[in-house]
Recover the amino acids of this structure.
């Protein structure tokens, strides 16, 4: 009998363990560019590793989730959000006997294209570059082109599909992703941010636990962990032995209502967004400067401006920035050095 590689054993194990509705790694549509298979990892395991080792993934630690440059280090960043999404997605997929490696890779890559200052930066790119700009499209662009100086990460089709289809507010249907694993990432993303953004808002004194409507607390739980457990358990119960991933009507509606509460009380009208207009102005000025002076961008972005246009390249450069880097660039370009050194 021919010796099996570690990869072969993983693929065999999928046949013996995964649900009939799971996506088998051997059925991948593959990658856009030729590659030599790894003897120790399946394709989706390899994608996960490529994402974790990418520069875009490392930059997530200094990108805003909700609070802009908080002094308290316990607030979420785009990195910790990503890790929470991956953790929740894996719990869901493990319980439903879906392909954990596929869902984990898509979860880890889903926000790689997020701008500095969270959705505030996304709004600026829509205004300055293209009204259709969206962080999930930019995440796909990161893995297909921007990483490795234009070579991209050469990920499998299914992981890229999960990345670009993770967004959209409604959880009641039309989930977009072609695999149940990709759909699981969309649910995990909502479950994660709804709950941890409320947790951060309570920590920041924006709201208190009692502000959450009583009916929602009664249905979903009184604590951060309790609400996550309710949502995940309900989703698993409603989706077991089913060709779709879903929540029960009661929990789905309560979850969407909690999301509306979050938007009304934290995202749209709160101290958490008090500095957002300044962040938008900062990014807009950076965009205008680099659009006028594309030669001031790093060489990769400057050269790409000749191929794809200045606006596209400036958008790519600014979207790649961390909050700190954007602030430092703004100081460098617009604030006299002597003023930066003044202390009172």
């Amino acid at each position: 009998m021919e010796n099996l590689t570690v990869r072969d054993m993983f693929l065999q194990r999928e046949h013996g363990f995964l649900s009939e509705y799971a996506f088998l790694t051997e059925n991948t549509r593959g990658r856009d560019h030729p590659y030599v298979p790894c003897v120790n990892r399946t394709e989706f395991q390899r994608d996960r590793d490529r994402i974790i080792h990418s520069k875009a993934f490392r930059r997530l630690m200094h990108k805003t989730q909700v609070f802009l440059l908080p002094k308290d280090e316990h607030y979420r960043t785009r990195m910790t959000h990503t890790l929470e999404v991956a953790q929740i997605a894996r719990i869901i997929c493990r319980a439903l006997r879906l392909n954990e490696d596929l869902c984990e890779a898509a979860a880890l890559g889903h926000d790689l294209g997020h701008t500095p200052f969270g959705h505030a930066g996304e709004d600026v790119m829509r205004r300055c570059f293209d009204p259709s700009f969206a962080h999930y499209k930019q995440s796909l662009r990161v893995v297909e082109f921007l990483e490795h100086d234009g070579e991209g990460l050469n990920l499998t089709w299914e992981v890229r599909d999960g990345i670009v289809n993770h967004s959209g507010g409604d959880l009641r249907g039309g989930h977009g992703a072609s695999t149940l694993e990709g759909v699981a990432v969309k649910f995990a993303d909502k479950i994660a941010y709804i709950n941890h953004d409320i947790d951060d808002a309570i920590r920041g004194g924006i709201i208190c636990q009692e502000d959450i409507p009583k009916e929602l607390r009664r249905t979903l739980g009184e604590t951060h962990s309790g609400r996550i457990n309710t949502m995940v358990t309900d989703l698993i119960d409603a989706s077991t032995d089913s060709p779709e991933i879903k929540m029960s009507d009661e929990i789905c509606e309560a979850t969407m209502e909690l999301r509306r509460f979050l938007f009304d009380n934290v995202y749209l009208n709160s101290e958490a967004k008090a500095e957002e207009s300044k962040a938008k102005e900062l990014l807009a000025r950076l965009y205008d400067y680099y659009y006028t002076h594309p030669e001031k961008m790093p060489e990769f972005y400057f050269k790409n401006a000749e191929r794809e246009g200045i606006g596209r390249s400036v958008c790519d450069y600014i979207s790649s920035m961390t909050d700190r880097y954007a602030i430092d660039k703004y100081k460098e370009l617009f604030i006299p050095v002597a003023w930066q050194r003044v202390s009172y």
Residues 195 and 224 are 6 Å apart (CA to CA). The chain has two domains: 6-273, 276-341. The domain at 6-273 is CATH 1.10.3210.10 (Hypothetical protein af1432).
